[in-house]
Model the fold of this input.
Amino acid sequence: MVDVKKHMNIIDTDKKIKKILNVKTNNVLKQEIKKGEEVLVSELPKCDICGEKAKYDSKTKSGPWGYLCEKHYEEYGVGKLGVGFGQKLILRE
Ligand SMILES: [Zn+2]
Done:
C-alpha cells in the first residue's frame, strides 16, 4: 500500500518550494529593465483617456498608440509588451 498522505505532503512541500523560488525570480526580474518591454521615465505621463498617471505607452486594439493607465491598458491595450506592442513605464528614482 502506498502511503497517500505522506505522498501528498511531499507534493505540497514541493509546491511551496516552487512558490518561494518564483517569488525570488520575480523580484530579480523587477530589478532589471526588460529590453523593449519597459522604459524608464523621470515622470509618469497622463493617461490619454482618463488623465490618471499612465503606466504604459502602448499600442491600442484600435491601432493608435497612447499613454494608458493600468485600467485603460487592460481595456484598450493590445495585451502584449515588446517592440511594436507597448512598453511599461517605470519611474526612475
Ligand atoms: Zn486611464
